[in-house]
Amino acid sequence: MKIGLFADTFYPEINGVATSCLTLERELTRRGHEVHVFAPKCKGWEDNQREHIHYIASAPFLALKDRNVAFPSFVATWEAEKLDFDVVHTNSEFVMGHFGRHIARRTGCALVHTYHTVWEDYTYYITHGHADETARMIARRYSQWWCNRFDRVITPTVKTLDLLHRYGVTAPIDVIPSGMDVARFSPARHSAEDVAAARAECGVQPGERVLLNIGRIAKEKNLSRVMRVFPRLLEVCPDVRLVLVGEGPQLSDLREQALALGVEEHVSFAGPKPWEKIDLYYAVGDVFVSASRSETQGLTYVEAMASGLCVCAVNDACLSGVIEDGVSGVLTEDDDDALLAGLVRAFGDEGRRIAENAPVHARPFGTEAFAERVESCYLHAIESRRGITADCEDMREAKKGV
């Protein structure tokens, strides 16, 4: 098949959508398909220029300055149309998603969409707390309108499928968890010297244990709760350091919070790290923490498990089938006391036992199964599109005979 992937974020940016698209592009190419990616230019795009990766001119988005908005040109449209795709797969509900839909309509190919992000959880970036419920309602209605215009929709979890059904989405939906190269995160891949160097780079002192989070530092990740609980954790586990790897709009707020709580000497803001080396920075940690309730899947949980860490996370529907409390991780209720209790468990004997077996529980999330299931979704979408086209031709012929 000839496949077009359209996304508002792609490698070398580091986030769940970019990683999912990169994994899919690589695995589908490995399976013999011709895959073209269309995405905005971003920091470092010059080092990733390949024949089938089409970076579009862009500028920073006003509401999220760490993200870029693409400006597809007539030349980009011409290039995309002449590729004559069998299927267009959009991974955005906005600029690049509309661009992909335009190309599919112009060429008549099948159209698939992955709903990666629950946008009603992100409206505060636009509203800043004013009329937010109205904005959330608009986000829900827009999501319904958008998804119902595709031959098939992909969601990474049953949680998101149920959400779209509540929105009123009637398009066929396939639940396909995003895959990842599990073997890449094996702790055995890194020498003790490399891990020690990475720990020193992150400000970790000899003898300290590391509470780690890797990802975008933003309000929806609820890292302020982790920071709020951290001083109480230090009372129980005084040898723990909190290491935050990433960047985002809440970085300065968290720095101020650490200072106000008097724990700034025990917190490292390590900054963003190259995606090619991110597995090494997982090896820095002992426990991976997340208090987020906005994930649709949360690839970082699986990456942490594959890296041999005990994951301590606030329980959420997206973790169903991913983490089992006391077996493959520690799940807590959504409050400070519960998170503290969970972190104490994770840094104790129970957490060490979980960490030893965590890589085994990450294996089902490999890339081959991911690409195989997406490929099957494409074939169903193509068959559906052919049926629609045939029905339209029959209707035109019937009208001619009247």
Describe this structure in words.
Helices cover 44% and strands 17% of the residues. The chain has 402 residues and is of the alpha/beta class. The strands form 3 sheets. It has a 7-stranded parallel sheet, with helices on both faces. Helix 8 crosses helix 12 and helix 11 crosses helix 13. The two termini are 39 Å apart.
SSE layout and pairings?
Elements: E1 2-6, H1 16-30, E2 34-40, E3 53-56, E4 58-60, E5 68-70, H2 74-82, E6 87-90, H3 95-107, E7 110-114, H4 124-127, H5 132-147, E8 152-155, H6 158-167, E9 173-175, H7 192-201, E10 209-214, H8 223-236, E11 240-245, H9 251-261, E12 267-271, H10 278-282, E13 287-290, H11 299-306, E14 310-314, E15 330-332, H12 336-346, H13 349-362, H14 367-401
Beta-strand fraction estimate: 15-25%
The structure class reads alpha/beta
Largest sheet report? 7 strands, parallel
- What distance lies between the first and last C-alpha atoms, to the nearest angstrom? 39 Å
Rough shape? globular
Low-confidence stretches: none
What is the count of β-strands?
Answer: 15
> Major sheet: order of its strands?
3-2-1-6-7-8-9
Mean pLDDT: 93
Per DSSP, the total helix count is 14
**N-to-C order of helices and strands:** EHEEEEHEHEHHEHEHEHEHEHEHEEHHH
The residue fraction in helices comes out at 40-55%
- Rg over C-alpha atoms, rounded to the nearest angstrom: 22 Å
List descriptors:
single chain; 402 residues; alpha/beta; 7-stranded parallel β-sheet; 6-stranded parallel β-sheet; 14 helices; globular
Short summary of the structure?
The chain is built from 14 helices and 15 strands. It has helices at 16-30, 74-82, 95-107, 124-127, 132-147, 158-167, 192-201, 223-236, 251-261, 278-282, 299-306, 336-346, 349-362, 367-401, and strands spanning 2-6, 34-40, 53-56, 58-60, 68-70, 87-90, 110-114, 152-155, 173-175, 209-214, 240-245, 267-271, 287-290, 310-314, 330-332.
